[in-house]
Hints:
disordered N terminus; 15 helices; alpha/beta; homodimer; 3 domains; 5-stranded mixed beta sheet; Nucleotidyltransferase, domain 5
Amino acid sequence: MNQSVSGSGSLLRLIRQGRASTRAELIELTGLARSTVAQRLEVLRARELIVDAGENPSTGGRPPAVFAFNRDAGVVLVADLGVTHCRLAVADLAGRPLAEMAADLAIDAGPEHVLGWVRDRFAELIDRSGRNMAEVRGIGVGVPGPVEFATGQAVHPPIMPGWDDFSIPGWFSRSFDVPVLVDNDVNIMAIGEHWMHWREAAHLLFVKVGSGIGCGVITSGAIHRGAQGAAGDIGHIQVTEREDAICRCGNVGCLEAMAGGTAMARALTNMGIPASTSRDVVRLARGGNREAAMLVREAGRALGKVLAAAVNLFNPAVIVIGGDVAQAHEPLLAGAREELYRRSLPLATRHLRIARSELEDRAGVIGAAVMVIEHILSPAAVDRDLAAG
Amino acid sequence: MNQSVSGSGSLLRLIRQGRASTRAELIELTGLARSTVAQRLEVLRARELIVDAGENPSTGGRPPAVFAFNRDAGVVLVADLGVTHCRLAVADLAGRPLAEMAADLAIDAGPEHVLGWVRDRFAELIDRSGRNMAEVRGIGVGVPGPVEFATGQAVHPPIMPGWDDFSIPGWFSRSFDVPVLVDNDVNIMAIGEHWMHWREAAHLLFVKVGSGIGCGVITSGAIHRGAQGAAGDIGHIQVTEREDAICRCGNVGCLEAMAGGTAMARALTNMGIPASTSRDVVRLARGGNREAAMLVREAGRALGKVLAAAVNLFNPAVIVIGGDVAQAHEPLLAGAREELYRRSLPLATRHLRIARSELEDRAGVIGAAVMVIEHILSPAAVDRDLAAG
């Protein structure tokens, strides 16, 4: 392996992170010889991974050349697939969507149908963005169930019939010769929210309260998937000893049976207030329906109990709450804060920030883009690509 | 900064990890030029951080020189301070204790008294190990309360009067010019157990069930301390809605109020069975006392509820259970497994291993040694030391 190639990826990372934009800064940060840095920069420039960004006139003497990461050195295709909805995008290598769309799409139509439809939309989005398929560097997909990240296969996904053990990367490899990464929808939302709004927070929990409830765990700035890719599945943590809170998982007292949108819609219907989805619950709560508001507040308390346990175990700097139900934010967050502060240790909540998702429906596609970009632009991957010519 | 120095720390890490023991292996792993590797190895050899380990005759041709990390290139001093007991050791740079001792020591005697006593014992242990104070490369201390890791200060430690905001590194700096790292006792136990027995498991929870209850969280092979160093404080997670389970923290229904050794001893005393410490509870349970055995089993169930939540959130590969109460392991682990498997998701428990601590009382000193060694032998620290001469 060529030595100048082998270190170029690390230099690119420092440039992408905004830690260096001149040769002198790279020499300072890496301790490498001037000639080595120059040689590695030349490799990056020849592949158009960096571009000149003018001169820096502020330092006196001959102004040093300033360079920047070339966010246009390719694009990524991303899909955030929910149970009944999806959002797709083409993004540049900084994770900025160049073209995007949202649509109804039933995940239970099965992988061939769903992915075929997604591929056709990808082609349209590429056209709309003014780019072309040859520029695609990677594909990122989020799905509403547990995923074995290493293989990109959903694992016993209860709400994704037909997807069990189906290889999503294998399917895309028929049409694309690029890395395909798959993760569950909450993890990609956590990555997106963290990347766009909370990058300085090393430890973050992103909680999605929609039809179901899940959590993305960011530790030391990276997503924590756990030993089987099952981390963050907080919807079935027990929050009550009440025997009537029956959950779809077969247990009683689960968080999802108290605070999931589907469970709340059913509870309202049983009270004679027709509701069928989490969006109905939110519409009623925001519209001033007292029963719905009380239910959402009680859901917030149940959520707060689980968050208190999560805070005691994990001590995050930030908790971000997203998903449909979070849009009824006042009673939900009030209930959650109430139990969270009642049951957590003062040391762990002293500086804790609790925030609503800023990206809302777009967290998933942005996170999927970031996931793929971090993978294809990791120092090892860059060095491998450069060595391969 | 000298280039050959700046990369030596990374080579040392590969050698310490057992990933390379010849020049050819280092060239293969790093992609560096042969001359660069040779130069950096010379620096490590001159400082006695690596030693020759004979030749490797198996590869044919001229046998390559084999080298190894020099575990005798210094020693570390470590102390695991509990509420009423302590354990101290001198360890080599592989974390192997060369001399150690255990003694009664009341943490509430205050920092000056406790640390003065520890320093005197360190001097005796150094003598016993046949080494000398000039060889000390670092000091590691565990304390029974939350610690702000960056400063080495205990933070509002409820059972450590007089230690609040006291700088343990500052105190040792009067006598030693070496890094001093401080962490809470459960974190160092988790590090020790992981390093010695579960290094292949990326994600591990170590639960200490003693007078109180705490948890050390290992993620991606490293301790997760959380935003304020408060991670793992699971003793005050709510496990019951019973109003009579009053905890010392002022809340009701905490895990520690059900399963902590102190709480169980009080419960037995209230039943007319005298017990004052967690060790009494264990002695009674192992001796066939039915009330004690039932109490420990119920404690196990309470622990299992918290572990189920932790497994759903964090999805560890291994849970290790240690501490005094864990020595009554059969009823405790039976109860814990019962609730854990009842309340966790099948995907997360399919390959989960639940084990007792192997190191038991020694987990803390070994973990403290590993914590310090990983710090002083990190690539950046080694490069800095070498550059300083």
